[in-house]
Amino acid sequence: MKKFMDENFLLNNETAVKLYHEYAKDMPIIDYHCHLNPREIAENKRYRNITEIWLGGDHYKWKALRSNGVDERYITGDAADKEKFLKWAETVPNTIGNPLYHWTHLELRRYFGIDTLLSPQTAEQIWQECNALLETEAFTAQELIKRSNVKVICTTDDPVDSLEYHKAILDDETFDVKVLPTLRPDKGVSIEKNGFQDWVSKLEQAVGNEITSFRDLLNALGARIQFFHDLGCRVSDHAMDPIVFEEGTEVEVNDIFVKGLKGEKLTESEVRKYKTQVLLFLGREYAKLGWVMQVHIGTIRNVNSRMMNILGPDTGFDTIGDYTFAEALAKFLDALDSTDELPKTILYCLNPRDNEVLATMIGSFQGGGIPGKIQFGSGWWFNDQKDGMIRQMIALSNVGLISRFVGMLTDSRSFLSYTRHEYFRRILCNLLGEWVENGEAPADMDLLGKMVKNICYNNANNYFGFQE
C-alpha cells in the first residue's frame, strides 16, 4: 500500500517517477487562461485569512459544500469567515474521490507546509497555522505567484475594461511576472441577452464615439483590440454556448444590430447571423495581430433560475451541455481559413463526449508552418481532474500530436491553484510512463524528457510568444 500523496503521488511506474522528478517538476508555469483579479496583483493584496484566499469565488468548493448539505449562508452568505472555513473542513473528508480532496491537501502542503489532513478535528489547528502564515510577506498575491514559478499570467477582461491595473503591474519594476489581459468579448457577441444595450453604451464610453450601426460596432471593437494589444494582450477568449454559424449580408446584420440596440426581439436566425459576422471579424483581427483565439464550447450556464435570481451568474450553477456543434464549428474555422485569416486557435469542450470531435477537427486546419497551430485544449472545468485529463490527452494522442500540446492552465480565481499544474504534470508523466512500461513507447529518457518539458512549458512559450 502506497502512502497517501507521497513524493510519487499519481506516479505508478519507474519511468513516470523519473520523468516527473527529473523533467517536469521544476518547469516554470505559463497560466494562459485564468480568472485572477488583476487589481489584487497590482495592489499586492494581503489576505485576512484562509477563507478569503481559499473559498472566495471557488465554484468547485461551493458545489461540494452544497452537495454536503451546507446552508448557503456558509457558502456565499453572511456567515463569519471562520464559520465558512469550519464548514469546508466538515466537507473535505466527504470529497474523497473528487479532485478537491487532492487539491485541498496539495495546497496545504505546497504553500503552508501542512501535512495534516483537513477535518473537523484538525480545523482549528489548520485555521491558526494558515492565518499566521498569511500575515507574512511570503503570502501576498505577488509573492504567491513568484513562489509558484509562474512566468506569465493571462487574466480575463471585457473589451470595455480600462486595464488600469495591468498598466500598474507593467510599471511595477519590483514584480517581473508578466500579467497580460485577455480579450473576452462575449457581452458584445450575445446580442440576445439582457444587458447588451448597456454594454454597447459602455463601449461607446471606452472609445469616445457613438455606436449606431454595425460598422460603428466593429470599428469600436477594432480600437479596443488595438488598445489591448498595446498592453501586451495576445490572447482572446470566447464562451460559445453553443457556437453557431449562419451567413448574412452586412446590410442584414446592420438591421439586426439596430433592432438589438432597440431591445426588439430577434429571431434565432437573426441572432446566428449577427454572431457569425462579429466572430468572423474578431477572428480576422486576431490573425492580423498574431493572437491566439480560445474557444470554449459545451456549457449550459445558470441552470438554477431560483439561485440565479438570488446570487446572480457565475456562482456555481452551470452544467455540461449535450448539444451538437461540429458542423457550425467547421464552417466557422473554414470561413476564416479560406482567406488565410484563421488565427492560432485553442478549442476546449466541456462534454468529454466531444473529445474526438475536437481532436479530429484541429487536424483539418493545421498549417502555416506553425507547430500545433490549432490546439485541442486541456481538460476544462469539470474535466480538469484525473480521468478528464487522461481522456483528453489520449484523444489528442490517438489522432494528433500530443508532443505539440500547450499543456495545462488553471482557469481559476485563486492564487493557490497552481498546484493544479503539478497535478497535471504527474498525470502526464504517469501516462507516458505507462506507454513505456507496456512497450508502446521507447524507454528513451532524452526523447520523452524533452517531450515532457515541452508540454509543461516550452510549447506554450513558443506558441504564444509571451517571452519575446
Q: If you had to describe this structure to a student in words, what would you say it looks like?
A:
The protein is an alpha/beta fold and 468 residues long. It folds into two domains: 348 residues, TIM Barrel, CATH 3.20.20.140; 94 residues, uronate isomerase, domain 2, chain A, CATH 1.10.2020.10. Helices cover 49% and strands 8% of the residues. The strands form three sheets. A four-stranded parallel β-sheet has the order 4-5-8-9, covered by helices on one side. A three-stranded parallel β-sheet has the order 1-2-3. The protein has a two-stranded antiparallel sheet with strand order 6-7. α12 runs parallel beside α14 and α18 packs across α19. The radius of gyration is 23 Å and the shape is globular. The protein starts with 13 loop residues before the first helix and ends with a helix. The model has no long low-confidence stretch (mean pLDDT 97).
